[in-house]
């Protein structure tokens, strides 16, 4: 086994400009439901931009986001977009629950970045979501893909 020393060993802390490393931090990562900046470009546009940088097709991006959400792979353990009660199980629950007409979505903040999904009949809050999560229900192309993955055999299509 090859043992590697932890961290950098070629420079001392006083030789490192720690502040400059802040510039390397991502501004947003829609795949992990992370956004550090406010205003400017929409969160869902930043997701599409990142997907293009990764050379992902629309179906690949869609299934990747859905899979990451049901696995609970959000930044900082956030529950936004985790539309399942079986966290950690690869399933199509994200798409099934996103498209469920029994859920009504309303903005939960002034910036319309966060949303609450409530039961249409009782008004009871069921889920929280971000703009990235809901774009798969609002954009016609992404919704069509989400509908395929939400079908009874969609779990197999999605690789679950």
TrEMBL record:
<keyword id="KW-0349">Heme</keyword>
<keyword id="KW-0479">Metal-binding</keyword>
<dbReference type="InterPro" id="IPR010255">
    <property type="entry name" value="Haem_peroxidase_sf"/>
</dbReference>
<keyword id="KW-0560">Oxidoreductase</keyword>
<dbReference type="GO" id="GO:0004096">
    <property type="term" value="F:catalase activity"/>
</dbReference>
<keyword id="KW-0575">Peroxidase</keyword>
<dbReference type="Pfam" id="PF00141">
    <property type="entry name" value="peroxidase"/>
</dbReference>
<dbReference type="GO" id="GO:0046872">
    <property type="term" value="F:metal ion binding"/>
</dbReference>
<dbReference type="GO" id="GO:0020037">
    <property type="term" value="F:heme binding"/>
</dbReference>
<dbReference type="GO" id="GO:0042744">
    <property type="term" value="P:hydrogen peroxide catabolic process"/>
</dbReference>
<dbReference type="GO" id="GO:0005829">
    <property type="term" value="C:cytosol"/>
</dbReference>
<keyword id="KW-0408">Iron</keyword>
<dbReference type="GO" id="GO:0070301">
    <property type="term" value="P:cellular response to hydrogen peroxide"/>
</dbReference>
<protein>
    <recommendedName>
        <fullName>catalase peroxidase</fullName>
        <ecNumber>1.11.1.21</ecNumber>
    </recommendedName>
</protein>
<dbReference type="InterPro" id="IPR000763">
    <property type="entry name" value="Catalase_peroxidase"/>
</dbReference>
<feature type="domain" description="Plant heme peroxidase family profile">
    <location>
        <begin position="4"/>
        <end position="150"/>
    </location>
</feature>
<dbReference type="InterPro" id="IPR002016">
    <property type="entry name" value="Haem_peroxidase"/>
</dbReference>
<comment type="similarity">
    <text>Belongs to the peroxidase family. Peroxidase/catalase subfamily.</text>
</comment>
<keyword id="KW-0376">Hydrogen peroxide</keyword>
């Amino acid at each position: 086994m090859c043992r590697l020393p932890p961290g950098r060993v070629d420079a001392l802390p006083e030789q490192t400009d720690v502040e400059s490393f802040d510039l390397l931090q991502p501004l947003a990562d829609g795949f992990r439901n992370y956004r550090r900046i406010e205003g400017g470009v929409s969160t869902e546009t930043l997701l599409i931009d990142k997907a293009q940088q990764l050379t992902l097709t629309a179906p690949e991006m869609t299934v990747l986001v859905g899979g990451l959400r049901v696995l609970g792979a959000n930044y900082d353990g956030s529950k936004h977009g985790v539309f399942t009660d079986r966290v950690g199980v690869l399933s199509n629950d994200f798409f099934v629950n996103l498209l469920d007409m029994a859920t009504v979505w309303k903005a939960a903040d002034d910036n319309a970045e966060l949303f609450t999904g409530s039961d249409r009949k009782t008004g009871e809050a069921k889920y929280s979501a971000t703009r990235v999560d809901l774009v798969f229900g609002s954009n016609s192309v992404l919704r069509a893909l989400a509908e395929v993955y939400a079908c009874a055999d969609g779990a197999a299509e999605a690789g679950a």
